[in-house]
Specification:
By secondary structure, the chain is an alpha/beta fold. It is built from nine helices and seven strands, in the order H-H-E-H-E-E-E-H-E-H-H-E-H-H-E-H. The protein has a seven-stranded mixed sheet, sandwiched between helices. It starts with 9 loop residues before the first helix and ends in a 14-residue tail after the last helix.
C-alpha cells in the first residue's frame, strides 16, 4: 500500500492505547460487545480447538471466550500495549504482532475473532484475506467493528464549530465503513456464507467534554494521518460543546452519543458447506410456486 493511501497513524494509535491503560481504561463498550460475541458463538454447535483474538484491546474477549465450553486453546495477539495480565484461563499463547501483518501460517486456526480493532487498519480487504487464509477449511471468523453512524453527533458538532470559528472543518472522527460494504469485502476475501448486521447503542454523558474524556480512556481519539497538527483552539472547543448541547441534549441536560457496532461473520470454504444450485438445476418452476403465469424472455405482459 502506498503512503498516500494510508488513513490511520498506527504508531499513534498504539501510543494512545498505552495512554488509555495509564489513565484507567474505559471498557464498558468492549465488555458489552464481548458478551454479545460469546452469545453468538454459543449458538454455533461445534468445537474450536484453536481460537485467536486479533488485536482486541484489553482482556474482555479472552475472558468471554474462556467461559465457553466449545473453545480450546486461546491465542492472544496484539501490540505490546495490549499485553497485560489476564484472567482468561485458556490463554496459552501470546503473540506480539500487528493486525495488518498476521503471523499465522495458512490453515492453522479454527476460529478468529476481533472486537473494535479492525476498523483502524489501513488495508481491511488485505487483512480479511490474511484471516481467511489462516483459517482451516470450515473455520469461522467473527468480528465487530465500529460502524459509520458512530459518533455522528460529535462529528456534526465539530464540523459546525470549526466552520463558525476557523472557516473550515478538519477530520476529527475516522471514516468508518457501512454494513453493505463490509459484506462485499467478506465475499471478495473468499469467505463462504458471509453475514453482516449492525446494532446501535445510544449512550448519554454529562457533556461533550465527558464523552471526549471517555474516548481518551478507550484509546479511541483521533488517529487519522490527515488530522490537523495544530492544537485545537479553545474557542473552537467551547463552540463545539455549545452546539453539541443545543442539538443533542435530552430534557435533563445530558447529551447523547451514538455507537454503531457492525458484525461480520464468514466461514473458510469447505466442501461440506451449503452450495448454491447450478443454473437450470431447479426441479420446480418459480411461477408454479407463486401461482402466476410464466412469461418468456422478450414477451411483454398484457393487460389483466
Amino acid at each position: 500500500m502506498t503512503e498516500d493511501a494510508l488513513v490511520f497513524d498506527r504508531a499513534l494509535l498504539r501510543w494512545r492505547r498505552r495512554r488509555a491503560v495509564a489513565l484507567g481504561s474505559a471498557t464498558f463498550l468492549l465488555d458489552r460487545v464481548a458478551a454479545d460475541l460469546a452469545e453468538r458463538l454459543s449458538t454455533v454447535l461445534r468445537r474450536f480447538d484453536i481460537a485467536v483474538d486479533l488485536g482486541t484491546p484489553g482482556e474482555a474477549v479472552r475472558t468471554a471466550l474462556s467461559g465457553l465450553g466449545s473453545i480450546g486453546t486461546i491465542v492472544a495477539m496484539g501490540t505490546i500495549a495490549d499485553h497485560g495480565a489476564t484472567r482468561a484461563e485458556k490463554v496459552e499463547l501470546r503473540v506480539i504482532a500487528d493486525e495488518e501483518a498476521l503471523p499465522f501460517r495458512d490453515a492453522s486456526l479454527d476460529l478468529a475473532v476481533s472486537i473494535l480493532a479492525l476498523q483502524f487498519v489501513n488495508d481491511l480487504p488485505g487483512v480479511l484475506v490474511q484471516i481467511r487464509r489462516a483459517l482451516k477449511p470450515d473455520g469461522l471468523f467473527i468480528a465487530a467493528l465500529v460502524g459509520g453512524d458512530t459518533l455522528t453527533e460529535l462529528r456534526q458538532a465539530f464540523a459546525a464549530a470549526e466552520s463558525d470559528i476557523e472557516g473550515g472543518a478538519s477530520p476529527r472522527v475516522a471514516p468508518f465503513v457501512d454494513v453493505r460494504t463490509l459484506g462485499d469485502l467478506l465475499r471478495r476475501a473468499g469467505f463462504a456464507l458471509p453475514v453482516t448486521d449492525s446494532e446501535r447503542y445510544i449512550l448519554r454523558y454529562d457533556s461533550a467534554f465527558a464523552l471526549m474524556h471517555e474516548l481518551r480512556r478507550m484509546g479511541a481519539t483521533n488517529a487519522l494521518l490527515a488530522r490537523r497538527r495544530t492544537p485545537l483552539r479553545r474557542a473552537t472547543l467551547m463552540r463545539m460543546a455549545e452546539i453539541y448541547a443545543r442539538r443533542f441534549a435530552d430534557s435533563d441536560g445530558r447529551v447523547r452519543a451514538t455507537f454503531e457496532i457492525v458484525w461480520l461473520l464468514g466461514w473458510a470454504p469447505h466442501v461440506s458447506q451449503q452450495q448454491p444450485l447450478k443454473p437450470g438445476s431447479a426441479k420446480a418452476r418459480l411461477a408454479d410456486a407463486l401461482g402466476t403465469q410464466e412469461i418468456s424472455a422478450g414477451e411483454k405482459a398484457g393487460p389483466t
